[in-house]
């Protein structure tokens, strides 16, 4: 069966393979563990180790993120640019770089349905891309190779302006950065390795090492981590090139321990799942996370004594350090400030609590009465006023009659009105 790409997952015990129709996950013994039917016709794969996300691009042009720890498809984003020609990731920010047939490079994250950056990099298809993950670069520099025979270097801080561009004598087909910032460009008839391309003063960098492959095309070139070796894949198998100074000599045992045991590897897998980073935290600006606001909010004692929202206008300005502006303003003297402090608090807005079956209807009728002139309601109010006046008049006449009747009664005979 045709295989287009393969990637190791969180450890060497599991790896994902993009085959002709679906993506399959195998263990170290070659046993099929999962069949991901949501990834149809995949051509490129990338795995984000700190997020446990498997990203794939296929002929349909959909970028799909799959969480391998829970088995849930996270999102599917259409690129609207057709079948991709290349794909890589930024190890520092976990941003996916995709190259397309029209020479466009797009940068994606699972949080946005549109690309963060859309850049016209080459006049032909972008056949290969690589991001420099060395300690000095921290994912800043990106190299792209196009079918037009050019290799370009870009700075992630100012997309749209290339740092360097040169024509490769062999049509490039694969590029890769080493852990120390060396760039390997593979193409027809061999592989060329460049060194110090970020700081070189010449427009075209001088080759550091070359590996000639007469009559062959280097379809893939990858540096071996923590080792000074470059592996090259071609039509007749694989070749290796010794590149002094390309690998990182000092490894971090918390990231990659070459001497770890089986129990330690098991503990590392459990710890990595527990420390998994949420996909919502993937951003272009990695310095944005953890940034603290610089607005002064007073001392700790003032914040504990009274909340900032509960302070009056004068108190807020004092906390912000703008009390001098208040003193200079007209009508903002000490007496006015004292009067403002002595003013009673605003009356709380009446809260209508709908309780029982008739609560909502009462609330509706109460709102309907406001600012509404209804003839029936007006006539009813007038009739109620007339009834109230009539009742008051009758009550007054009754009281007067009682007082007059007591005065006219003499000798047990009634002399009042009949």
Description:
There is one protein chain. This protein is of the alpha+beta class. Among the domains are: 3-167, Methylamine Dehydrogenase, Chain H, CATH 2.130.10; 294-340, no CATH class. Helix content is 21%, strand content 33%. The chain contains seven helices and 22 strands. It has helices spanning 262-274, 300-305, 313-320, 323-328, 334-342, 359-369, 375-408; strands spanning 3-8, 14-19, 23-27, 32-36, 42-48, 53-58, 62-67, 72-78, 84-89, 96-100, 104-108, 117-120, 126-131, 141-146, 150-155, 162-167, 172-177, 183-194, 207-217, 220-223, 229-234, 237-242. The strands form six sheets. The chain has a four-stranded antiparallel sheet with strand order 1-2-3-4, with no helix packed on it. β11 and β12 form a beta hairpin. It is elongated, with a radius of gyration of 40 Å. The relative contact order is 0.06. Residues 333-343 and 407-418 have low confidence and may be disordered.
What attributes does this structure have?
Methylamine Dehydrogenase, Chain H; four-stranded antiparallel beta sheet; alpha+beta; 22 strands; elongated; 418 residues; disordered C terminus
Number of strands: 22
In CATH, the topology of the domain at 3-167 is named Methylamine Dehydrogenase, Chain H
Helix content: 10-25%
Q: Biggest sheet, in brief? A: 4 strands, antiparallel
Terminal CA distance: 123 Å
Unreliable runs: 333-343, 407-418
Shape by Cα distribution: elongated
Rg result:
40 Å
């Amino acid at each position: 069966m045709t295989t287009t790409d393969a990637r190791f997952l969180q450890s060497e015990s599991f790896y994902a393979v993009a085959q002709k129709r679906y993506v399959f996950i195998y263990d170290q013994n070659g046993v099929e563990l999962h069949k991901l039917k949501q990834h149809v016709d995949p051509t490129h794969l990338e795995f984000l180790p700190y997020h446990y996300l498997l990203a794939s691009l296929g002929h349909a042009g959909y970028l799909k993120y799959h969480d391998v720890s829970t088995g849930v498809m996270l999102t599917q984003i259409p690129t609207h640019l057709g079948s991709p020609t290349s794909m890589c990731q930024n190890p520092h920010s976990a941003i996916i770089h995709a190259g397309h047939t029209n020479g466009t490079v797009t940068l994606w994250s699972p949080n946005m349905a549109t690309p963060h950056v859309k850049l016209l990099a080459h006049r032909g298809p972008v056949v290969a891309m690589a991001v420099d993950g060395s300690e000095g670069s921290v994912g800043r520099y990106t190299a792209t190779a196009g079918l037009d025979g050019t290799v370009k270097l870009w700075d992630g801080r100012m997309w749209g302006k290339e740092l360097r561009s040169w024509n490769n004598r062999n049509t490039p087909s694969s590029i890769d950065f080493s852990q120390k910032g060396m760039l390997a460009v593979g193409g027809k008839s061999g592989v060329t390795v460049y060194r110090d391309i970020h700081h070189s003063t010449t427009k075209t960098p001088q080759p550091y090492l070359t590996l000639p492959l007469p009559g062959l095309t280097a379809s893939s070139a990858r540096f071996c981590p923590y080792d000074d070796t470059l592996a090259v894949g071609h039509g007749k198998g694989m070749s290796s090139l010794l590149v002094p100074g390309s690998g990182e000599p000092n490894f971090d045992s918390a990231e990659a321990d070459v001497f770890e045991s089986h129990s330690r590897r098991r503990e590392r897998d459990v710890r990595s799942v527990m420390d998994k980073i949420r996909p919502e935290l993937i951003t272009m600006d990695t310095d944005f996370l953890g940034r603290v606001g610089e607005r002064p909010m007073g001392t700790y004692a003032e914040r504990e004594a009274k909340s900032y929202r509960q302070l009056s206008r004068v108190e807020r300005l004092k906390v912000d350090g703008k009390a001098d502006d208040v003193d200079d303003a007209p009508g903002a003297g000490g007496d006015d400030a004292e009067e403002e402090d002595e003013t009673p608090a605003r009356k709380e807005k009446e809260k209508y609590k709908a309780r029982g079956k008739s609560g909502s209807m009462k609330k509706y009728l109460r709102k309907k009465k406001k600012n509404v002139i209804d003839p029936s309601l007006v006539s009813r109010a007038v009739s109620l006023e007339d009834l109230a006046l009539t009742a008051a008049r009758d009550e007054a006449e009754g009281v007067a009659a009682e007082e007059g009747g007591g005065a006219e009664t003499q000798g047990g005979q009634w002399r009042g009105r009949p």
